[in-house]
Hints:
The chain has a five-stranded parallel sheet with strand order 2-1-3-4-5, sandwiched between helices. Helix content is 47%, strand content 13%. The chain has helices at 12-24, 35-44, 65-75, 90-98, 111-141, 152-164, 181-191, 209-217, 234-237, 253-265, 291-296, 302-308, 324-340, 349-357, 363-377, 390-393, 413-427, 432-439, 443-452, and strands spanning 4-8, 28-32, 53-57, 81-85, 103-106, 171-174, 199-203, 218-219, 231-232, 242-246, 267-268, 277-278, 282-287, 311-314, 346-347, 382-383. Helix 2 runs parallel beside helix 3 (65-75) and helix 13 (324-340) packs across helix 15 (363-377). It is of the alpha/beta class. It folds into four domains: 4-136, Rossmann fold (3-Layer(aba) Sandwich); 152-314, 3-Layer(aba) Sandwich (Rossmann fold); 320-393, Helicase, Ruva Protein, domain 3; 407-452, Arc Repressor Mutant, subunit A, CATH 1.10.10.
Amino acid sequence: xxxxxxxxxxxxxxxxxxxxxxxxxxxxxxxxxxxxxxxxxxxxxxxxxxxxxxxxxxxxxxxxxxxxxxxxxxxxxxxxxxxxxxxxxxxxxxxxxxxxxxxxxxxxxxxxxxxxxxxxxxxxxxxxxxxxxxxxxxxxxxxxxxxxxxxxxxxxxxxxxxxxxxxxxxxxxxxxxxxxxxxxxxxxxxxxxxxxxxxxxxxxxxxxxxxxxxxxxxxxxxxxxxxxxxxxxxxxxxxxxxxxxxxxxxxxxxxxxxxxxxxxxxxxxxxxxxxxxxxxxxxxxxxxxxxxxxxxxxxxxxxxxxxxxxxxxxxxxxxxxxxxxxxxxxxxxxxxxxxxxxxxxxxxxxxxxxxxxxxxxxxxxxxxxxxxxxxxxxxxxxxxxxxxxxxxxxxxxxxxxxxxxxxxxxxxxxxxxxxxxxxxxxxxxxxxxxxxxxxxxxxxxxxxxxxxxxxxxx
Length: 458
């Protein structure tokens, strides 16, 4: 069927005429001779039998078609209303549009034209329904409203978050700096059975080893200078909830040994303490480092790596998320415009093209800073190209130069390999494991080649 149409006309003969003609055109038809009966029918219709469109006469005794249109569009804006009248005046058309009518036809009705209008109205409603369903599906798959994005990479991430949230397994969140690893960790916590418990985060790179041990395990009074009282560690504070170790790749090797033992025994001894304290936490960790490469270089313990990496979630870089760049940019533009009290309503087409072309090495964090700066500087209602930093305005995509057309400019195969390997490493932001996978090399071979090229740890 082409759609379910509710026909409303105070003349029974007109209802019958329209019913016959539209059934021949494969519409499902219901008719009523009063607007009040039609409203009651709309109110009582089951979800699987809703009308796709209302076709109503303009002038009727009692509640008019115009009033019916106003009430339907107010209460069921998803159902388009088409008004028909023998009075084809401009005033009638204007009244219909103001009442929220989808379209307007005059009597005598041309059935072919009416069929086209009805098909268009039904298609409009079904498209709206599809958009709503898609939006609901994205929201359902997005565990936290603060995580934005509907690219394929993000939809896959949402699916993974839903599946791992209720697990008690340790999770390692990897990804480039600025991709939102702590935001994802909080989302996992909020979707887990531990959501009512505390979420405790610590940046492991911000503390030296001695302070990190005290921070995580706590300390006893007198354990060191300034330890004037017993202090509960973060493991104990996070009991019943989630402990998030950010920059876990920066933890010193000796501290990794202590953490491994604590995680396996679910208890830890405070610095200077005489007894161990039990804890009950779910561990989430994050890093932007290549931990497998660090293991190869004896800078990270393999046993600790497997203890924190029962499940790994890799966050996509912003340049791999397509139009999410504009979705996030729009979100930040609205956020900062409201904070700064500026009437900035959007982003110009030219500025949007520049944002899409840029590779965003700093990921979402860099985009947020760029939009904050642009909103602060702009003099227009829309962010313009001139509001963006020079590096984004002038950005040109990098290419691997193999040599010119002249024979003297051509380079040996070994040089082509060197340039391409270094280009891939640059595009992967120095991640050797990812680079090796793209190049089809094992990590040891890649390390050997990089050593030949004079590329160090930096």
